[in-house]
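Per-residue structure
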Amino acid sequence: MAKICVLGLGYIGFPTGLLLASHGHEVVGVDVNKTVVETLQAGKLHIVEPGLDELFASAKDSFSASTEVCDADVFLIAVPTPFDKDTRLSDLSYVKSAAEMIVPHLKAGNLVILESTVSPCASEKVVIPILEKSGVKAGEFLYSHCPERAIPGKTLYEMEYNDRIVGGIDEKSCEVTRDLYKSYVKGDIHLTDTNTAEFVKLTEN
C-alpha cells in the first residue's frame, strides 16, 4: 500500500484518487478550491459522473480531501492545462503551481506522476526542473507521465478498461508507475519515455 497525494480534484484527479483508494492505497486529494474540499469533507460530491457515488462510498475510509499537500510516497498531478488559442500551446500555469507545492515534500525514492495533458518536452524542460528545487535530483526521485484517457459520462469505465501509456525518465520509474496503475487498470499498460508519452497524448487529442 502506498500513500498517494493527488493534486487536482476535477474530472480526472478525483475519480483517479477514488480508484486508487478503493484498491488498497491511502489517498489524500488536494485542491486549491476550498469549496470543493469542504464539500468532500462533508461527504458530498462536487462532480456528477455515473458510478461515482458508489465509488466514493467504497473508498471513503482510505480517501481524504485537503487544501494542503502532505508528505507521500507518490504525488500525482491531475490539474487543468487549458489550450491557449494565441500561442497554440497548453497553459502550464496550474502544472507549474502543483509542482511547486510538491517541492517542500519531495524525498528520494518518491514517485511523481503527471497525468495532465502537456506539450512534448514539458516534463523535461518545465516540471522536472521545478521538482529539483527540492534538492532531490531526477533519478533520485522517480518521474513518469501517464496522460489521462477518459471522457465525461464514461470516465470510470474508461479509466479501468482503456490501455494506458507510461513514459518514465528511467526504467524503474516506468515499472513502479505501471505497478501502481495495475492495481485498478485492466487494459494494457505500454512503457516508453516521457517525451514519447507526451507526443502520443497530443496526437490522440
User: Anything to note?
Assistant: The chain is about 35% helix and 20% strand. The CA atoms of residues 17 and 113 lie 13 Å apart. The radius of gyration is 16 Å. The beta strands are 3-7, 26-30, 63-66, 74-77, 83-84, 89-90, 111-114, 142-145, 164-168, 189-193.
